[in-house]
């Protein structure tokens, strides 16, 4: 369970940009917690033998096919060096996260709930009103 995405000031203030940043952190933690699979395919002993001890593995198809499986891909954390970051506008993480939150709010199209789901939600509301308000 993850508690407090988007919270500032002990939950007194909420920030949608912070929710986006926190989601980046959670994705990275989940990637680490998933671990690195160790099996014949991922060990790539045959590639190690063919490339050799002084070889270069980055150009190998196997490396290209597998590196994204263990590398997290954050949306708002910037991994560029300072020079490239400045050349791209030098926006900090909070600025990028707030911009992405606005984009999501402006463009997200939620899926429509089924009539059955809407009916169940309506019944939950009615039951809660009856229990809490005596209706």
Radius of gyration: 23 Å
Main β-sheet description? 2 strands, antiparallel
Rounded mean pLDDT is 91
Tell me what portion of residues adopts beta-strand conformation: under 5%
Distance between the termini: 34 Å
* Number of DSSP-assigned strands: 2
Helicity, as a percent range: 55-70%
Shape descriptor reads extended
What does this protein structure show overall?
By secondary structure, the protein is mainly alpha-helical. It has one domain. It is 59% helix and 3% strand. The protein is built from seven helices and two strands; from the N terminus they run E-E-H-H-H-H-H-H-H. A hairpin with a 4-residue loop joins strand 1 and strand 2. Helix 1 packs across helix 6. The longest helix is centred in the N-terminal third of the chain and has 19 residues. The radius of gyration is 23 Å and the shape is extended. The two termini are 34 Å apart. The model has no long low-confidence stretch (mean pLDDT 91).
Give keywords.
135 residues; mainly alpha; 59% helix
Describe the protein's topology:
Elements: E1 7-8, E2 13-14, H1 16-34, H2 40-43, H3 45-51, H4 61-70, H5 82-87, H6 93-107, H7 115-133
Antiparallel strand pairs: 1-2
Helix pairs in contact: 1-6
